[in-house]
Specification:
Elements lengths: L2 E9 L30 H10 L5 E5 H8 L13 H7 L2 E4 L11 E3 L4 H8 L5 E5 L2 H9 L5 E7 L18 E4 L4 E2 L5 E8 L8 H7 L1
Parallel strand pairs: 1-5, 1-6, 2-3, 2-5, 3-4
Antiparallel strand pairs: 6-9, 7-9, 8-9
Protein name: Dihydrofolate reductase
GO molecular function, one term: 5-amino-6-(5-phosphoribosylamino)uracil reductase activity
Organism: Sanguibacter gelidistatuariae
């Protein structure tokens, strides 16, 4: 069975809306589109590229798909590390509530039962990446329908914008799969694997009494 990897860029206060550009997502009057760019560096770029090794499918929300489809097919192979070649070649699956034309080669619209459709993708692909797609990602979190979560946490506070973990996320255990890595610009990469069960509880005051 294949694995679903979620890749997200977030601020220190957990905001992940429109990291890439000013017009990416202005819902709610969001004024900080493109907040990721000033803090990007070669370390983060290399981390993103290394994480794509073995990727054989993209799974995207409608808005992110439209952004990618308007950009990557027009990028010539060169300084992008082969991302354009990879994205243009592999299958793309789109979660959208509306019927739509998908002009980007190898693109498929998921059916109305998105949860079932995503589960079926695991039987067809080894390494599926969900990049951005914040609204769609909330469904994957709620359904616990992912296997790996990589967060790049940027050292800024915005105080507004859509959250990585919106209200309604299912209680979930995660396991850190490797030590966190900090880039020269202060961006911290954290990589997690989904584990079973729900978060446990305890009483820290018991330890104080024992001492």
């Amino acid at each position: 069975m294949g694995l679903i990897h979620i890749d997200l860029f977030t601020t220190l206060d957990g905001r992940a809306q429109a990291p890439g550009g000013p017009d990416e997502d202005t819902d709610g009057g969001f004024a900080f589109g493109g907040w990721q760019a000033p803090l990007s560096d070669e370390v983060v770029g290399a981390q993103i590229l290394s994480g794509m090794v073995g990727m054989d499918a993209l799974l995207l929300g409608r808005r992110t798909y439209d952004i990618f489809a308007g950009y990557w097919p027009h990028v010539k192979d060169g300084g992008d590390g082969g991302i354009a070649r990879l994205f243009n070649r592999i299958p793309k699956y789109v979660a959208s509530r509306q019927a739509r034309n998908l002009d980007w080669a190898n693109s498929t619209l998921l059916g109305p039962d998105v949860v079932t459709a995503v589960r079926e993708l695991r039987d067809r692909h080894a390494k599926i990446h969900v990049i951005g797609s914040l609204d769609f990602v909330q469904t994957l979190f709620t359904e616990r329908l992912f296997d790996r979560l990589t967060l790049w946490v940027y050292p800024i506070l915005l105080g507004e914008g859509k959250k990585v973990f919106a209200d309604g996320v299912a209680p979930t255990n995660l396991r850190l799969v490797e030590p966190a890595v900090t880039s020269p610009g202060g961006v911290v990469r954290q990589r997690y694997a989904l584990t079973g069960g729900t978060p446990g509880v305890g009483d820290m005051t018991d330890r104080d009494r024992e001492g």
